[in-house]
Amino acid sequence: MSEHTWNVIAIIIYMSVMLGIGYWSYRQTDEYEDYVLAGRGLNPFVAALSAGAADMSGWLLMGLPGALFVSGMSELWIAVGLLAGAWANWTYVAPRLRSYSEVADDSVTIPSFFENRLGDKSRTIRLVSSTIIVVFFTFYVSSGMVAGGKYFESTFGGDYLTGMLVVAFITVTYTFIGGFLAVSYTDAVQGMIMFCSLIIVPVMALLYLDDPSSIWTWATSNSYGPHADGNPQYFSLISGISAATIIGNLAWGLGYFGQPHIIVRFMALRTPKDARTGRMIGMSWMFISIIGAVFIAIIGTAFFGQNPDLAITDTSKYESVFLDMARILFHPLIGGLILTAVLAAIMSTISSQLLVSSTSLIEDIFKIVKKNHPSQDVMINLSRTAVIVVSVVAGLLAVNPNNSILDLVGFAWAGFGSAFGPAVLFMLYWKRLNVQGTLAGMIAGAVVCGVWGNTGLKDVVYEMVPGVIAATVITYVVTIMTKPPSEEVVAGFEHAVEREKEFLAKA
Questions:
Q1: C or N: which end of the chain has fewer Cβ atoms within 10 Å?
Q2: How far is CA 372 from CA 123, 376, 384, in A?
């Protein structure tokens, strides 16, 4: 059989497994809370891997190795920032959010938690935050569909639209039928595929070389990729970049606190104590995966530099280094299964964002309009309908790939981080916080981030930095200048803190 046929077989195997998990999850989902939050019964292993897979996307497998291959280790600061941010998120947000979201009237979405935590009777917080989520994540989902279409186009030489529709159909199907449980378990499997691929590919590439030790010197003094005479500063962390750039890249880690599709996993944990196990698993997965991506780039300089007959498909950004290594090193079936790691990264992000946006549409917007809440079965069906609605809109945006969509996604991480990040931390750790301060901070963070990111100022420092600073300062100042929260809200805060301590103190 041809290489193409083997790759198709690999893709069919992968997608069959995803649909199988979706069907199994469907059989486990009886109530509305099961569909939107897995009944708060998610084990830490699944939570950790699904959060990692939903977060990293194709950046880990293509973007990071490509950037490191071209520019060297100076591109590593983003990864360092993300590692630090993920650790802080698991340490300081996960256990308390799990405790507090249950205390706060058993909140199942981030906007509902915001409302219940602050005792906002006007419902303004819930409506504003849910609108932000639905709008931004619709574009996020669209960008994932675009990535899926381009993956099929570049990997199989097929039609973009066909590839986009295939990826969209499979992802929407298992999300539609299985809800949060399906998204979490498919993400966990996809996370394991990414993890294994990032270990296997660099190890086999290293064994392929006649002199494995050459990886430490080849890039600095020999021809490879875009460097005819090598890159003498390849292993320097600070060469050619300013202090502001380093700060901006590290600031990517601040975005974790405000990403709804990540922190919602914390709300689904069985107990606050599970956050400790989740942190250990999640950080191990993330650290080893990033190390794998780094070595793909380092080994790749010698792998392709010493073998000029081995071509790199992407000669612009060199983001195909991982894919090309997998094709060259393995039997087409195994190579095809490894190539699904990129598809896994794309689909895990699409499904997570699709579920969060559709759930927010029903839980946080529909419930405000509908005074009499329907039955459990009706709510589940409405959530499934919302999945279709969001996916159709996203699909229409993705039919003709548009740079503006992709550009928006590039800055949406900063948008969520600026608008929601400080708000989440204040809610979890400052009992004086009130509705007025939260609203003002969210709006300030979003506006500053948006303005900064769409001007020349973004070239000075990443828009996340001024966005988070503005949101933090405005939230504090406005809260201090306005009426304190009610005694009931303060009592809820103290109850959540004590409950968290009780769980964490258990042996």
A1: C
A2: 16, 13, 19
